[in-house]
Amino acid sequence: MRRAGLVVWGAHQLVGAMVRPGVTTGQIDLAVEQFFIAQGAESLFKGVPGKVPFPSVCCISVNDEVVHGIPGPRVLRVGDVVSVDTGCSVAGWCGDSAVTYPVGQVAPDVQRLLDCTSGVLALAIELMGVRSRWGDVATEMAKYVRDHGFSVVENFVGHGIGKKMHEDPQVPNFCTPAFRRNHDFQLEPGLVIAVEPMVNMGTKKVRALPDHWTQVTTDGLPSAHFEHTVAITDSGPKVLTAAPTADELAAPVAG
Ligand code: MG
Ligand code: MG
């Protein structure tokens, strides 16, 4: 899974270097598709079943688009935020990661939204090493977002990941008594989950656009999304979609 995670990390380096005013979301998607082919990786997103199969290797969601945006001719402009979510498999094992990028200078409250969303993902990964149940992590995630004055999206959650992109368990970024009773799970070595908080500046409510995929905020305010694939190991949480470590650069991951 680390091999797939490194390819996904590499895709995000490519995306980060491309994001600027004037670039289209379709150009970004095409670059990632070519990168996956060059790396011998298979897209996890292209062809995902729905009313229409998902047509692209990235979900690209701009401003009030929360997740599942379809890349195309849309041109990025200064002040936009663009969420790029992508995943691939290498030798049958999956990696999945999302980043929200600012396009040039963004408004201060929008930058705060990005910082809060990447911050709550970092908090969750840290807590995975010191809490025993996901419900405890999710409770603190929701509080962190609330304390920043933003709202956690509840219609979409993270997921287990392994040989398939979407496996059990479901990994919400908030906690309810029903989750505690029926769906909570132990954080123990061997578990691998995609943790992916989506945070809205205003209402948590979302709705689908007529393209059957793109989810937007119902109040039109911006949204942000950060995701990592995280394994719990005997020595704590390990982010499988993170940059190569010094050790890995010295002795590349075998394969
Ligand atoms: Mg994803
Ligand atoms: Mg995911």
**Strand ordering within the main sheet:** 8-7-9-14-15
Overall mean pLDDT stands at: 97
Number of domains: 1
Q: What portion of the residues fall into strands of 2 or more residues?
A: 25-35%
What is the distance, rounded to the nearest whole angstrom, between the alpha carbons of the first and last residues? 11 Å
Structural shape? globular
Order of helices and strands: HHEEEEEHHEEEHEEEEEEEH
Q: Determine the CATH topology.
A: Creatine Amidinohydrolase
Using the CA coordinates, give the radius of gyration: 17 Å
CATH fourth-tier homologous superfamily: Creatinase/methionine aminopeptidase superfamily
Characterize the largest beta sheet: strand count, sense, and whether it forms a barrel: 5 strands, antiparallel
The ligands bound in this entry are:
magnesium ion
Approximate helicity band: 25-40%
Note poorly predicted spans: none
Structural class, from helix and strand content? alpha+beta
CATH architecture: Alpha-Beta Complex
Structural overview:
The chain is α+β, with helices and mostly antiparallel strands and 255 residues long. It has a single domain, classed as Creatinase/methionine aminopeptidase superfamily (Creatine Amidinohydrolase, Alpha-Beta Complex). Helix content is 30%, strand content 26%. It contains six helices and 15 strands. It has helices at residues 2-18, 25-38, 108-128, 134-147, 177-182, 246-250, and strands at residues 42-43, 58-62, 65-67, 81-90, 93-102, 151-152, 158-160, 167-171, 192-195, 198-200, 206-208, 215-217, 223-225, 228-233, 236-239. The strands form four sheets. It has a five-stranded antiparallel beta sheet with strand order 8-7-9-14-15, with helices on one face. Strand 11 and strand 12 (215-217) form a beta hairpin. Helix 1 runs antiparallel to helix 2 (25-38) and helix 3 packs antiparallel against helix 4 (134-147). The chain is globular, with a radius of gyration of 17 Å. The protein binds magnesium ion (2 copies). Residues 85, 87, 96, 98, 196, 227 line the site of one magnesium ion.
